[in-house]
Prior knowledge:
- The chain has one domain (47-93, 100-354).
- The protein is an all-alpha fold.
- The longest helix is centred in the C-terminal third of the chain and has 49 residues, at 330-378.
- The chain contains 15 helices and no strands.
- It has helices spanning 36-65, 71-77, 83-89, 104-131, 134-141, 144-156, 162-180, 182-185, 196-225, 230-255, 261-267, 272-299, 302-310, 315-324, 330-378.
Amino acid sequence: MSSVCKLMPEQESDHGEDGSAPKAAAVRGGSPRGGVRWWLSVAADMFMVLCGQTVATLLGRLYYNSGGNSKWMATLTQSAGSPLLAILLLFTPAPAADEPRPAAAKMAPIYVGLGIIIGFDNLMYSYALQYLPVSTFSLVAATQLGFNSVTSRLINAQRFTVLIANSVVVLTFSAALLGIGASSDETASSVPRGKYPAGFALTLAASAVFALILSLFEATFEKVVRTRTLRWVLRAQLWTNVVASTVSAVGLLASGDWRTIPAEMAAFKDGRARYVATLVGTAVSWQVMAVGSLRLIVRVSSLFANVTGTLSLPLVPVFAVALFGDRMTGIKAVSMLMAVWGFLSYAYQQYIDGRRAAGAGKGRAAAECRVCAARAGSDPDSPA
Length: 384
């Protein structure tokens, strides 16, 4: 998780993920896209997403299993760690003189709009995580990759290939299988009885909204911010989470849940210290995941960031079986394999696009060299 402190001072170039119209591959003051340093940075971001999402999901379930019951408190923890980003901002490099500076009047509505959407999306995830075993919740949440394929096509002009379509279909069937296995999951003592359909529907809805959020972030950096430094990544994450935290705090106060917090702390398994540690750990983990995901969005694309999130798919159910006693049924196992298949389908498309982009870049470079040579040969002032 300490990888979140790794700075990204360079400004990265735009690119076409589908390889059809790749743009400049070099980054200012850094290594070219696809170089060793670039891949190491991407790997660090992926590690942040995997660790943050896995730990945050498990701690969120632990909160409910240990006696926590406030949906708004669980929602607040998903964005309340944002003040940590303000500390990181103090250590980021000063902006370059030519760095674009979008007007505050233009960015404020974006921050408020995204923050409100994030706040209510977090609330849906909080309900869903209480109503489903964490293993099932994780597998259903994998459908966000399919939703993100659609939003990326509509908002970010992502090319919808056969492999991506295959990924969407497979992930959809993966979620449908879990719907068939509802009865076995409802026997889990830690899950409220009769809430499985609501948890299933809320997880699907939250996954769709999360996919929309990722695509909107990508569009914001592409069309409004027009720069890809760590300072802007942290700034966007900070202000949208401040708004989301405000939404959660208002809900906590308006619902009256805040009155039950002292009793909840006193009754929490292993005491008040474990209660506080669980909430703080959840808040920090979500911020690590969010920053890593946003860095992947500005480095590669929202779809790639979402694909990375699905890599935690096999991790959460395994830990859930070991830590919470979730049942690993045959339907879950098949669903997990189908979800991994869906991920690999997209990953292979990413590999093909990368090869195509690299080949196009070499072809353009060779053509430019031939043009330069022809011009040099036709220059009357050139030496014989």
